[in-house]
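Data availability (excerpt). All sequences and predicted C-alpha cell strings are deposited with the supplementary files. A representative entry, Bifunctional transcriptional activator/DNA repair enzyme AdaA, is shown inline so that the format can be inspected without opening the archive.
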Amino acid sequence: MLFDLPDHATLYRALLERDSRYDGQAFVCVATTGIFCRLTCPARKPLAQNCTFHDSIGACLEAGFRPCKRCHPMQAAAKAEPVIATLLDALEADPARRWREGDLAQMGYDLSTVRRAFRRHFGMTFLDMARLRRLREGFETLAEGGKVITAQHQASFDSPSAFRAAFARLMGCAPGAFRADAALRASWIATPLGDMIALSSATHLHLLEFLDRKALPAELKKLRETTPGGIGIGRFAPTDQAEAELTEYFAGRSAQFATPLAQHGSEFSRAVWAALRTIPAGQTRSYAQIAQAINRPSATRAVARANGANQIALMVPCHRVIGADGSLTGYGGGLWRKQRLIEIERGFKSATP
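C-alpha cell line:
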C-alpha cells in the first residue's frame, strides 16, 4: 500500500460526492456489476454494502473486477475525458495550427464544456495550451541561433509584438533580454505529461519545471536577477543528461536521477528536498512524515511551503508527498499530473523484485 486507506464510510462518502482528492489513490469495486471505478465516476452510485475499496488498479484486477467503461480507471483522469483525448491528439498531430473557438464549435463541441474540462485538469484552456505548443516552435528556433522574426514565423504568430508578448508571459522577459554568453541557459524538454523548461549552468541543473506552472515566470525572474552572467537560451551538459534520464523515466526503465543539481533555498528547504529524494519511486509520504524525517516534527506547515518552493520537478519528487488521509493535495504542476506520476511510479514499484 502507498498509504493506509481511510475507513469504508469515509471512502463511500467520497464516492457519493465524487471527491477528486482520492482520484488515482483509491478505487471502488462493485460486487453487483463486477467492475471497478474511480471515486469520481459519473455512473449511478451503488449501495454501500456492495462496495469494497482498494488502493491500486492491480489490487482491483487481482480481485477479479473489470475496469469501468465510463470513468476508464486505467487511464490518466484527464485522458479519460473524450473531449480532452480528442483535442490533445489533434494538437499533437498539427502543433503549428492556430486554433480558434470557431474550430472547436465546428467540431461539435460546446465551448464552455471544453473550457471547464481543460481548466479542471490543466489549469488552462485548450486555446492557451495550443498557443503554448506553437510557442515551443519559436523557442527552439531561438535556441538554434535564429532571429526573433524567424522564431515568430515558426511559431505562427501574426506579429513580432504578439510573439514577444507571449514569450514574455512564459519566460518573464522578452527574447531580446536573453544573453548569448549567459551563465545559465534555458532549454525546452518535451515529455509525455507536457513540456518542461530546464535551466542549467555548465555543471549543474538549476531549474526543471512544467511550462504551465504558474510560478515559473517568477522563478525565472529571480534566477535572472541573482545570477551573475544572466540567462540565455541553449544547452549545457546537465540539460542533456536530464533529458536522457527523463526519457528513461517515462519509458518505465529507470527512476534514478543522477543529474547534478544546484538548489536555491534555505538550509531548512534543502533538508526537506534531500528528504524528498529518499522516497522510493512507487511510495509516498505525508508532510508530517517528512517533518519527522528531518527531525522537525512540529514544522509540518514549513515542510509544505518548502515542498511547494521546489524548482526541480520529478528529480526532487515533491509529487510523492500526499495528505495524511491519502488525498493528493496541491501540486504546482496540476493534480492530474501528480496522479499520473504516482501511477507511473507504481509500475516501478511492481517491477521491483
